[in-house]
Structure to design on (204 residues):
């Protein structure tokens, strides 16, 4: 069920610096490793509503029409190419939120949850992403969706914690390096494009 393509794509998706990563990094920079782990937990919990909406929405589509599911899958391929283009063009740097230094553990988790819950792009992303790795002819596509979502959440939490540890260890020297960020973004963009092409040509 957990193909190499799914694991690699999920890792790339989680590694790409977004609002959750930026929040985790800035919190770890100002309040240390524990605060960074709490921010990681909040960011991971915040994707649950988007995953649930995706799971039940896709389950309904698969039950209704195999053609509609395939159309959604190819729309997802197009979205991966869009992500490659957007990631390549993104020049935004990590921002340090000075207010994070005064937040309690509960506040840190709550803000991480809200950041992702209030990001409508996540639902769109999961609707484009998960169909690539589900077999509509399987006995229980819904079980596949749940399992894939669980793995994605676990990977999200682990990667966010790693980001927090690196931010705390290296502080601003590496995290705020424009050169390092530029190199990472170009690598991620190329990976998105390559995986999108592979998924589009893959024989299902």
């Amino acid at each position: 069920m957990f193909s190499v393509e799914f694991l690699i794509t999920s890792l790339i998706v989680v590694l790409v610096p977004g609002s959750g990563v930026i929040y985790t990094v800035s919190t770890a920079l100002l309040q240390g490793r524990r605060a960074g782990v709490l921010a990681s937990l909040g960011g991971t919990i915040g994707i649950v509503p988007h995953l649930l909406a995706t799971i039940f929405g896709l389950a309904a589509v698969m039950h209704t029409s195999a053609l509609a599911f395939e159309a959604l899958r190819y729309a997802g391929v197009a979205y991966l190419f869009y992500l490659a283009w957007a990631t390549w063009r993104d020049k935004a740097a990590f921002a340090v939120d000075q207010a994070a230094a005064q937040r309690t553990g509960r506040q840190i988790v709550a803000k991480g949850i809200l950041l992702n819950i209030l990001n409508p792009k996540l639902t769109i992303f999961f609707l484009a992403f998960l169909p690539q790795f589900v077999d509509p002819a399987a006995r229980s596509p819904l079980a596949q969706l749940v399992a894939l979502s669980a793995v994605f959440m676990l990977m999200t939490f682990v990667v966010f914690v790693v980001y927090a540890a690196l931010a705390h260890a290296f502080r601003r020297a590496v995290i705020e390096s424009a050169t390092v960020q530029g190199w990472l973004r170009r690598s991620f963009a190329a990976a998105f494009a390559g995986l999108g092409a592979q998924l589009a040509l893959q024989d299902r």
Notes: The radius of gyration is 17 Å.
